[in-house]
Amino acid sequence: MYAAQSIIDPQGTAQEWTIWGDAPADSLKSAISAGPNGPVIGALNCWEHLHPLLKFHHISLRTQIHVASWPFFGLIAEGVPPQLSSDVQDTLSRAMAIEGQIFVIQSTQLIRKENEGICRIEGTPWAPKNGGSSAAIYSPLGVRLTEPTDPGQETIIYADINLDEVAIGKLAGDVVGH
């Protein structure tokens, strides 16, 4: 399975992400500005949320809105490590909001019963109890701005945000420095 995401800037150029490539740190662009008056939007996938230096670099790009994308882990069977659960994905996404004083949009992959065979998880501990998806939006102070979603349904979530909350959060603690 491969996970990738692209953010297209107003001029129409995609920020490319090279996996396992050798390059200087300043070439890693995980966030872009959405225009002269737009917010700085960034994204990380899956295990990238477990790398403190990558998160620090991402936050140092002045990210205001972060997209935390996760593969399916879901509500899995007993005996599977808890780190591979949507609960942990939610926890890490909320921590990203608090650490970076940024808005975080968190989403996971949904696997329906009819797709378990295609994914080769039918009858295994990895088969979801109920779709296994999760989605949320968190404020820079870690407040969940959306209601919990049904793990068995595709859902589009919305929240009104005020980008001034990013600056207010950074007054309390900015990991990049005041």
Give keywords.
C-N_Hydrolase, 178 residues, nitrilase activity, 5-stranded mixed β-sheet, 5 strands, alpha/beta, hydro-lyase activity, Nitrilase/N-carbamoyl-D-aminoacid amidohydrolase, hydrolase
Architecture overview:
This protein has helices spanning 52-60, 86-100, 164-172; strands at 31-33, 40-45, 65-70, 103-108, 135-138. It is built from 3 helices and 5 strands; from the N terminus they run ββαβαββα. The longest helix is centred in the middle third of the chain and has 15 residues, at 86-100. It has 178 residues and is α/β, with parallel strands linked by helices. Strands 1-2-3-4-5 form a 5-stranded mixed β-sheet, covered by helices on one side. It is elongated.
Short summary:
With 178 residues, the protein is an alpha/beta fold. The chain is 19% helix and 14% strand. It starts with 30 loop residues before the first strand and ends in a 6-residue tail after the last helix.
Query: Class in CATH?
Result: Alpha Beta
Main-sheet strand order equals 1-2-3-4-5
CATH architecture: 4-Layer Sandwich
Give the SSE order as H and E letters: EEHEHEEH
By helix and strand content, what is the structural category?
A: alpha/beta
Taken as a percent bin, the fraction of beta residues is 5-15%
What is the CATH homology-level superfamily? Carbon-nitrogen hydrolase
> Which stretches are poorly predicted, pLDDT < 50 over at least 5 residues?
13-21
Give the secondary structure arrangement, pairings included.
Elements lengths: L30 E3 L6 E6 L6 H9 L4 E6 L15 H15 L2 E6 L26 E4 L25 H9 L6
Parallel strand pairs: 2-3, 3-4
Antiparallel strand pairs: 1-2, 4-5
